[in-house]
Amino acid sequence: MPVRSQGTIAVNTCTIRSFGYHREQKRPGNYLLLQKPIPTYALYGEFLSATESDPVHHETIRERSSKHGWDIKLHRHEALSQFFLFETPGVQVQAGEVAFRTTGPTILCVPPMVTHGFQFPKDIVGDVLSFPLEQLEDTARNRLSVFTQGKPRVMTPTPTLNFDGVRQITRHLARAFHAFEADRTELLQHLIQTLLIYLTAGQPQHIAPATGGIDLTKHEQQCQTFCKLIEQKYTSDAAVGWYAHALGVSPPHLTRISKRILGATPNDLITRRRMIEAERLLKFTLHPIADIALRVGYRDAPYFNRAFKRWHGVSPGVFRRTQSV
Hints:
This protein is an alpha+beta fold. The chain is 39% helix and 20% strand. It is globular, with a radius of gyration of 20 Å.
């Protein structure tokens, strides 16, 4: 049986949460399967997009991996299905019990709770699409179910898989995701449907055995609930004491488990959520800075300005001007 251990996390350019750590058994000749804790990540409050309802998140692989030495350690995602589009060769992949190096254009589909990790070449070209299953429309979720049964799939260009079509739809998804425009969510849903039609036309080249889920400890469950509460209340002036009371624990207890399991203090996590929303509003709206301060939970605009500058290194006004250049 796997042995549970605890740890903190520092992987990815996105904001994440971590629950449940299991040890993998070491296998000779498998460079990624080591006797180390395997963290489980989720897109904490869907921070990646700074909205709660996005049906997909997009990153380039370069964006994700360059800040981590091109090496993404073994990890898992809770309630997320991911598609990796590798356009250049030389990616060392571990997904479930499948381990290989890509030799050409490749698509990797990773279901929720399947362990995966990568070593990327520095000239990598590719994209990552993450699908929070609860945010998808029923039709898309049904199509995606082909890839969410615990079996990672590897696909390469074939007569039935239109790789160029997948690449083009991925580009459209990336543009739609990063542009906050009218009907954005509807456009994303339509593009997801189109992408899944392309993908389900191809046949999987590799199928790995299913991997089991995990049970959360009491403290991990408390951290999971804390993350959900932040998403609900970050625009209010709720302080750590309020969150602790809502969880039925003391503020010092919440601080201890947050630092140990989530890798940051409760105040840092609340501030992080507020700052991500502040960034979005500064980039994509013309709201006055004082209004943005109120919208992200700061009743005092000067205090918001100081907090934003501590977080980003520049004032909100300077940040907004640099984004519009």
